[in-house]
Amino acid sequence: MRSQCTFWAIVRRAVIGGAALALCAVEAVAGAARAERPAPQETPFVCAQVVLAIDGSKSTDESDFYRQIEGFRAAFGREPLYHAIQDCLPGSVAFAVMTWSGAEQQDLCLNWALVTNVDDGHHLAGQFARCRYFGGSTDIGRAVEYGLRVLERSPFASYYRTVLILTNGRTDRGAEASLAAARARAAAAAVTLAGYALLRPELKSSSPAFMRAARPLERYVAEQVSTGPRAFTAHSRPGSDVGSLLRALMELLRQEAS
User: Fold this and answer.
1) Angle at Cα 203 formed by Cα 199 and Cα 206, nearest 5°?
2) Residue 27 domain-assigned?
3) What is the pLDDT of residues 248-257, one digit of tens each?
4) Which of 2, 125, 190, 213 could form a disulfide with 76 if both were Cys (CB 3.0 to 4.6 A apart)?
5) Structural domain span for residue 146
6) Domain count, the chain
């Protein structure tokens, strides 16, 4: 009897030991599979995502259009801009660049670039050569809508999202409703619209009857384009583009860093 008990005890230990070994093997295989499976990539986090929307409508002739392009290229070559970027924690900003005109005329020149230093900025500045001029109508609302879609497809996450809309004219008659709807959508998505008015050279007149327009472009842009808790409006005239664009970009970053 004792020998039979001993025999069955040995068998039981063998079975239990085999099961334990099998379990260890399964866990080892599962562990190896987990080790081989790539970890999900984290979304890069930046201080702000900024869409630069450049006016390419017929109210902006080609010389004015390329004046905007050169102004941005020069602004991204200036050292003060990178101090502002580094002050905007965590010290990086993602930019996308688009041009716009009428309802179906928008073009994405640069689909997101991360800028942390001067070298990044010089690389981004080189991409402005891709931007094309349309020469069509002026539909600011559709430009805003397109900018919002660019933000929705961004590979980045950030504290703030902004569309900087440059224009040298008011939206066309009949397109006011699309602008109002786009501004409302931006507000609902917590996206800031910053308006930038491209002014024409000041007219000189010795006549006392000469008066400026009752609602100049910068006022129109401030009231009908810019919106959001950190919104602001800037403007420039021919010859002051580089300095004005640089100040506008720095103001945008200063407000988002505060």
Assistant:
1) 160
2) no
3) 888 888 776 6
4) 125
5) 47-200+213-257
6) 1
